[in-house]
Each structure stands twice: as C-alpha cells, then as structure tokens.
Design brief:
Helices cover 37% and strands 5% of the residues. With 131 residues, it is mainly α. The chain has 2 domains: 48 residues, no CATH class; 64 residues, no CATH class. It binds zinc ion (ZN).
C-alpha cells in the first residue's frame, strides 16, 4: 500500500488516531495472537518480569523498571521498541515531526487550520529506530 501524502488520504486510509500506549497494546496483542517471541534474547525472565511487562502494556500502565546493574533493563526497553509501528505519519517540513492529527507547533497548526485535509501538503512517514 502506498503511503498517504495528505492528511485527507491518511484519514481515508483509516489510519487510527491512537496513543503510544494503544499502539503498543494493539501490536502486543497481534504478536501474542501470532505466537511470536516477544522478547528475544532475554533469558530467565519468562515466569517473572516478562508476564508483568505484558500485563502492564495490555492494561495501558506506565512502566518503571527497577533493578541492579546487568539485569537487562536496557535490553528490555530496546525490545519494547519492536512493539511500535514501523512508521508514523508526520507533517512534512516540520522541525519537530508533528503528528498530522495533533500538530503542536504554530506552523503546522496554522497549516492544518487553513486546510484540514492537507491537500497539496505531503505527509511523510518514518520512525527511526535502532536495533
Ligand atoms: Zn510542526
């Protein structure tokens, strides 16, 4: 599927207006349904930490990881990034990558207010993640 190039196309394509927590939850549910390994490379937490993390994400909770050095806190957070969508829409030319549905900066709020469907304005998608 081609990516939307305007806000109107984005809405027409059914791109959901959801929070990060909702995105994590939906992608976690999809991974659980598919039977994918959720946290590859994390050993020894299958019966303790990982179920709690899954429940926290499914419930939409804020998460705080506490632990001694070397207990895979960073590795776990890096694995959580894989639960995010590969790409997110943003208003082209914005310095802070405003979301098309909820622009923050004055420039983009003005653009969207003047033309809510964004005709002639491009919406680019990318999410730069590492790992
Ligand atoms: Zn902006």
């Amino acid at each position: 599927m081609d990516r939307a190039t305007t806000i109107g196309e984005l809405r027409a394509a059914g791109y959901p207006d959801r929070t990060i927590k909702e995105e994590l939850r939906e992608n976690l549910l999809a991974r659980l349904r598919a039977g994918d390994e959720l946290f590859p490379g994390l050993v020894g937490f299958d019966d303790s930490v990982l179920p709690a993390i899954e429940r926290g994400i499914l419930a939409g909770h804020d998460l705080i990881l506490l632990g001694e050095r070397g207990q895979a806190k960073t590795r776990l957070v890096r694995a959580l990034v894989r639960l995010l969508d590969d790409a997110v829409p943003m208003i082209a030319g914005c310095e802070i990558n405003d979301h098309p549905y909820h622009p923050i900066c004055a420039r983009c709020r003005g653009l969207v207010a003047a033309d809510p469907d964004g005709a002639g304005r491009s919406v680019t998608s990318s999410r730069s993640t590492t790992g």
